[in-house]
Structure formats: structure tokens, C-alpha cells
Specification:
37 strands, 457 residues, elongated, Membrane-bound Lytic Murein Transglycosylase D, Chain A, Immunoglobulin-like, 19-stranded mixed beta sheet, 50% strand, 8% helix, Jelly Rolls, five-stranded mixed beta sheet, mainly beta
């Protein structure tokens, strides 16, 4: 049989081979979709008296000769004679534009800015431009702002690309398009009344488009989610969002290759548990009042009330046994803000509830007494420690088991966190320490927990 000629025989394949070929075909189709750049909608232009295609080309096209492409696309027979009031549809990639300024306004942790495959560390005040990637590592956060005060805040493990950040000269319409490959972004978009203006967030499976609103977009593998907090957002599976019904504030949707889900009510913001707004313990810890229907909760910490400068986050699962809580470890003294959200079983994050809290470390911890003997004498060294700003003096009290209300030792005014007692009689005792702290002209008292001591014969 000649090469390339199968004769009259039948070519057969096993089911496994057929399945492999089908899988390869699907992979190739998916790769082709991923490598295909989204098609931008044409820019509409209403012809004014005296307009000509040649004149428009000189004024508004990157290459004046591209007026011929506009002529062909719109079926114009005479480029020097246009009918006033008629409309032209122009490929936006042909149009002159000016860049829109963007600035990295806040960051915490390792944030990388990637340009043409090269990465550099981000820094506050850095200018951002079209084509760059902003990448947040685990435990890192970033916020960038546009010149119209629109803002994009990125939590940890997020990759977003500035796909378009320009304003076309033809209609003065800003084009702000962001590509979210993974992670989540919270967007506050300033209203833009200019026709043709765009503010879009694209994921591998969806596009969310607004004119002025506040919303969140998350992307993970083959699924994306949009949650609308203010205004309305059009969400479509794919690239075209112009005909998508708007999602109103208070609702969220999920998108996949199969389409966009029906809108779901967002959960209300959780209430902060008692004591959360005063954080004086060694570790910062918050408890939340449970929200009906929540599967988990998310907490963000920020240095500002607008949550531009975010520096920590935590997620905690909902349980039926106790109030959900989250620990943030050690944090420097200061005034901060915590944002609480409830997440439903489908992964949609609800409305935020924001609280301020004061971090003022003030701890008092006791250690076990050190028992020593020297000849016939027996000594007990009582020790304790404190942490936090301010000047302290201490009061030591000891009670015998026989009379737990009247101290057998009462020593105020101690400036050192220790006291030695000698020749205590055998028996059971309780001792405790309190601290008077002087800070910023204010005196406060902190009582340590009671400690037990048993002395044998």
C-alpha cells in the first residue's frame, strides 16, 4: 500500500484511542479559546456636518490611511461625502487614545508588578500602565486607583492584568478593562456619563461590566462569581456583555462555560461579638454573631476606614456549636478597622459590616513560684510579666485557704515584677497580682487571675 493511501480497507480505533483523540480535540479547542483575544465592541460615531472619512482618519485614527478600513466596514461609497446624522461603527483598535493614569496607592507584603514577563517589587506611589500584571502573594494585599478615583483592591493570591487603560480621542470615552486570572477583586467604579465608556472585569469564563458601582469579582479555574454591592452590573458568560440583564445591588451570580446562574440574595453583614472593639490581649481575636445561611466568614483588617490599606485577612468556618472566631496574632498598637462578611454555601460573599477597633496591648501573666531552701529557711520567688505601653507598678496579695477574703500579704507599689516571701507555713494559698498602668495621663488597673500554691511540710 502506498504511503498516504488506505486502499479499501477499514481503519478502526479502540475506544481508548477514540477517547484520547476526543480529549486532545477538547484541549485544543480550550487552548484556542484561551489564546484568542476578546473582541472589543466597535465605537459608534455620529457624523457631523463637514465630516469626511479622510478628515476623521487624520484627526482620530492611529494611521490616517486606515480610513479605508472604516469605509469598507461601514459600506461608505464616497469617503469625502458623509451624511450628517448617520452613524459609523469604528474598530476601537484603529483609534487614537491617551493613557489613563493609575497609581499603586497601598500594599502590604510581597506584591509584584510584571511587565513583558519581567517582575519587580511593587511600591506605594508606583505608576501603573496598560499591559502590566499586579500579582499578590500569600499574605499580600494591594490597592490601585485611577485618575477618576475608581479603585481596585486585591487580596492575597490574586493575578490581575490591566488589559486597557486609555481614553479614545474620538468620543472622550474612557476604556478600563481588567483581566482577572485568579483570586478576587473589590471594585469601586466612579460613575461615567460619557457614552461608550467601559469599565469591565474579565475572567476566563465571564465579563462583568459597569458604569458606576461597587462590586466584587472572583475567578477560580472554570468558575467566576460576581457580587453587586451598589448600582448594577451586567454579567455574561463569554466576551459580550452588552445584552446581559443587569444584576442589581444585593445579588450575586456564578458564571461558567454553561452560562450565568440566576441571581442569589447576598447575605447580610455579620455583627461583631462583644469586646471585639477593644483588643488588649496578647493576640488579636474576633468573635462574630452567626448569620443564618452562612457556610463561612471572611475578615479583613485595614489601617483606614475605606479599606484601601488592607494588611491581614482570615477565613473561618461556620459551626453550630459556638460563635465563629478568627485570630490575627500580634499587631502593633493603634486604631484599625475590621470588615466582616458572610459567605454562603455556593461561595458568594455577602454585604460587609465594618467596625473600628483599638489595639492597646496590656497583658499581665504570672509564672510558677521558684521554691528554694537555704539552711532552715525556705524562700518563694513570685514572678510575673506585663506587656504594652505605659509605666506600671504592681500590687501583690496572698490569701490563706482558711480565710480567702483577708490577705495575709498585701504589698502595693512594687516597681519590679517579682517578690520573695520566706518561711511560709505549710498549707494551701491563693495569690494574685494587679497592675496600675500610667499612659498618656490616664491610669488604668488590670487584675491578674488567681494562682494556687500548695506548701507541704
Amino acid at each position: 500500500m502506498r504511503p498516504g493511501h488506505y486502499g479499501r480497507g477499514r481503519l478502526t480505533m479502540s475506544r481508548a484511542a477514540t477517547a484520547r483523540l476526543a480529549a486532545l480535540a477538547l484541549l485544543g479547542a480550550a487552548t484556542a479559546r484561551a489564546e484568542t483575544a476578546p473582541v472589543d465592541p466597535p465605537v459608534a460615531y455620529m457624523v457631523k456636518p463637514g465630516d469626511t472619512l479622510i478628515g476623521l482618519g487624520r484627526a482620530y485614527l492611529n494611521r490616517p490611511s486606515d480610513y479605508r478600513r472604516v469605509q469598507k466596514a461601514n459600506g461608505v461609497t464616497e469617503p469625502r461625502r458623509l451624511r450628517p446624522g448617520s452613524r459609523l461603527a469604528i474598530d476601537p483598535n484603529l483609534l487614537k487614545s491617551t493613557p489613563i493614569a493609575a497609581t499603586l496607592s497601598a500594599l502590604t507584603g510581597p506584591v509584584q508588578i510584571e511587565t513583558n514577563g519581567q517582575r519587580i517589587p511593587g511600591r506605594v506611589g508606583m505608576s501603573l500602565s496598560e499591559g502590566q500584571w499586579i500579582i499578590t502573594s500569600p499574605g499580600a494585599f494591594a490597592t490601585f486607583e485611577l485618575e477618576d478615583a475608581s479603585r481596585v483592591t486585591l487580596p492575597s493570591n490574586t493575578r490581575v492584568r490591566i488589559a486597557k487603560l486609555r481614553q479614545t480621542l474620538l468620543n472622550n470615552a474612557p476604556q478600563r478593562v481588567f483581566q482577572l486570572d485568579q483570586g478576587k477583586g473589590t471594585i469601586s467604579a466612579t460613575p461615567t456619563p460619557t457614552p461608550g465608556a467601559r469599565f469591565e472585569v474579565r475572567t476566563p469564563v465571564s465579563v462583568s461590566a459597569v458604569r458606576g458601582t461597587e462590586f466584587r469579582v472572583a475567578a477560580a479555574a472554570d468558575r467566576a462569581q460576581t457580587e453587586v454591592l451598589k448600582g448594577a452590573v451586567g454579567v455574561a458568560a463569554g466576551e459580550t456583555v452588552s445584552d446581559a440583564p443587569p444584576i442589581a445591588a444585593g445579588f450575586g451570580v456564578s458564571a461558567s462555560a454553561n452560562g450565568v446562574s440566576a441571581p442569589v440574595d447576598l447575605l447580610p453583614g455579620p455583627k461583631l461579638g462583644a469586646g471585639g472593639q477593644t483588643q488588649s490581649d496578647a493576640l488579636v481575636r474576633f468573635s462574630l454573631e452567626p448569620v443564618k445561611g452562612a457556610a463561612s466568614y471572611r475578615l479583613l483588617l485595614a489601617r483606614d476606614a475605606g479599606f484601601v490599606d488592607i494588611f491581614a485577612e482570615a477565613t473561618t468556618q461556620a459551626t453550630s456549636q459556638e460563635k465563629p472566631n478568627a485570630d490575627f496574632g500580634q499587631i502593633a498598637n493603634g486604631t484599625y478597622f475590621v470588615r466582616l462578611t458572610a459567605i454562603d454555601p455556593g461561595g458568594l460573599e455577602g454585604f460587609p459590616a465594618d467596625y473600628s477597633f483599638d489595639r492597646d496591648l496590656d497583658t499581665l501573666d504570672a509564672a510558677s513560684p521558684n521554691d528554694t531552701r537555704q539552711g532552715k529557711h525556705r524562700s518563694f520567688l513570685f514572678r510575673w510579666s506585663s506587656a504594652g505601653d505605659g509605666v506600671r507598678n504592681y500590687r501583690f496579695q496572698m490569701f490563706a485557704e482558711a480565710d480567702p477574703k483577708t490577705p495575709i500579704v498585701d504589698q502595693p507599689g512594687l516597681t519590679e515584677p517579682r517578690l520573695t516571701l520566706t518561711d511560709l507555713a505549710p498549707g494551701a494559698y491563693t495569690w494574685r497580682v494587679s497592675a496600675l498602668r500610667f499612659k498618656d495621663g490616664v491610669m488604668t488597673e488590670k487584675q491578674g487571675p488567681p494562682q494556687q500554691l500548695q506548701i507541704g511540710k
